[in-house]
Write a structure and sequence with these properties.
Distance between the termini: 84 Å
Radius of gyration: 23 Å
Strand order of the largest sheet: 6-5-7-8-9
Structural class: alpha/beta
Largest sheet: 5 strands, parallel
CATH class of the largest domain: Alpha Beta
CATH superfamily of the largest domain: SGNH hydrolase
Low-confidence stretches: none
CATH topology of the largest domain: Rossmann fold
Helix content: 40-55%
Strand content: 5-15%
Number of strands: 11
Mean pLDDT: 87
Amino acid sequence: MAKVRGLLGNLLLAFLSTALILLLGEAGLRLFRPVQYLKPPDSAKMRKAQESLYRASSVEGLSYEMIPERDGVFEGMQVRTNAWGLRGPAPAQDDSHLFRLAVLGDSFTFGFGVEEKDNYPTLIQEMLNGSQAANGRRFEVLNFGVVGYSTQDEAAVLKQKALPFHPKGVIIGYVLNDPETDPRPSLHKYFDPPVWWRHSHLLRLCHLGWNSLQVWIDGGGDYQRYLHAPGGKKWLSVREAFRSIRDSSQKEGAWTLVAIFPLTPKSSWLDYAYGDLHGQIAREATMNGFQVVDLVDSFRHYPPDQLVLSPTDDHPSVLAHRLAAEAIFQAIRSPARP
């Protein structure tokens, strides 16, 4: 009995000592080295985000969406949303001559930093309606792009929001951070209910360490390669989303095209390091029956600094949007397209 009491006493002492160390660690981080990684936003920032251009979404699979009927300056750019919460004018009433396309994507597709008239979905519509491809038809290109969306989000958008418009074609604007499903720097952190451990600085630090280790193991320290690691959960989310988009499009009888945006290098296209990732994305898309447009083929003919908004903002410039629109337009006009 004495041995049992001694063992229980040692276990209790070890438990209390560990708890004390953890509490001291938590207190020390809070006071002297707060951990910002995956930190739940404060209520003021949440209200600001929710009162600007976004709101919590009631659509299954989406945490947030754009607020309908907005017209004003948001994050330094003029933005209007229609009654369906899409950037741009209201969709036309259906008629027998209307040929509608749906464009899915994130901030690149939304057109962050450029005017509505200069984003590539708008330019594609303009090019199609001004070409011989119209042939008595009127093209309407609906922009379903939303800042911060992943490919997983885009699959939900297609199923829940785009298909009711009966598009004849679906265009996906793919960016190399699209496999990201964690609420890291994106808007998700303002709308996803934070899991309990995110309220602890110590546990967030542990998660950061574990995540950094995974980036090194799966991506050799390169975050984009980590996101596209063939056996990783991030890339798996893209594969599942592509299959969902394929199935949804097939039910509607719509063709699907994937446009792969490069991450514009700082100095020269000779330094572009992700051509193999473009190939991986293209193979997966092709396996699902998607047409592929690799925009690096169009972008590499221009100096990188002309294709981004600024040295500190790699969102596509007006020129980059036009190049993307021209490449997609040419693909749509190909004989394989209806």
